[in-house]
Input
Amino acid sequence: ILRWILPAKYKSVEGEVCLITGAGNGMGRLLAMEFAKRKAKLILWDMDQAGLEQTAKLVREIGGEVYAGVCDVSKIENIREAAVKSREAFGDITILVNNAGVVFAKDLLELTEWQIEQTFKVNVLAHFWMLREFLPSMLERNHGHVVTLASVVGLFSSPGMPDYCSSKHAAVGLHQALYYDLQKKKCDGIKTTMVCPYHVKTGMFKGVGLKSDVLTRSLSPGECVDAIMHAVLTNRPFVAVPRVMYISYNLSTWMPMKVLAAVYEYTGANDAISRFIPNRPYQTKLRE
Ligand SMILES: NC(=O)C1=CN([C@@H]2O[C@H](COP(=O)(O)OP(=O)(O)OC[C@H]3O[C@@H](n4cnc5c(N)ncnc54)[C@H](OP(=O)(O)O)[C@@H]3O)[C@@H](O)[C@H]2O)C=CC1
Ligand SMILES: CC1=C(/C=C/C(C)=C/C=C/C(C)=C/C=O)C(C)(C)CCC1
Output
């Protein structure tokens, strides 16, 4: 309650070295712009070279310092190589935003094995590899910030995307474990923020959304990124967007699953994912 009454005190990120994965599109691009406006040095990674160059251009146009490198975070060797080049550009990373994510939006038996593996490689395993690469220098200096783009479906599952939901649950589990490890080690200078948005209208979930806005509505990328920046700059450990998702999360922890299934049926959440339109290269063809 005090947090809502008192004016928010924002920290400065000027001069911090901020690495954002999946920065070539969607929220990654907008996050890059927000950190650049606040004078952080940007390291941007993505496997979409054209999108990445566009983000770097936009950052430079507002006077930001940026190094952009193509990196497929599903491959640990790529992460290691890109990490060397990134350190050469600006030195140690002090803000890590694990943002890259993939979804195929298919039922369990329709997914290919490659799709299931790719979802886990990008949405979870990459977070492990990124943390193992960049956490040591943060620990040495007891300074840094780790931001995890998880999802509300990492807190409670919804139908139509079993691989995605379970990968986001794993990302939530990893992030929470990291938080408690840092507390245990008394590393009070390393902050963490876990972000759990509902559906955001980027290209990732094209076509998806509840038919009615009675319970909640899809977010614009801008409003979600505003909520993320607010949480990061005020060192909040957890943010669910929109706020009504805190209530949904709370209900889902004690509500019988049968009741939640009825809510999904009633609100049209059961059909929401079936309206999905593949809109990313990895969603339509294998990209190795
Ligand atoms: N949109 C939503 O409704 C929600 C999104 N989220 C999460 O937020 C994060 C950002 O999502 P959003 O901005 O919507 O997604 P976008 O699809 O708009 O952006 C994701 C970016 O990640 C890139 N990417 C995918 N795979 C890799 C890879 N292996 N290596 C490097 N980059 C990769 C994509 O590149 P390319 O286009 O070339 O594939 C794309 O540029 C994701 O983790 C997502 O799960 C959470 C809740 C809701
Ligand atoms: C769980 C839940 C709902 C639906 C959730 C859905 C459909 C979430 C989709 C999220 C996406 C696309 C996340 C991407 O990362 C309602 C009906 C709003 C309210 C009750 C609880």
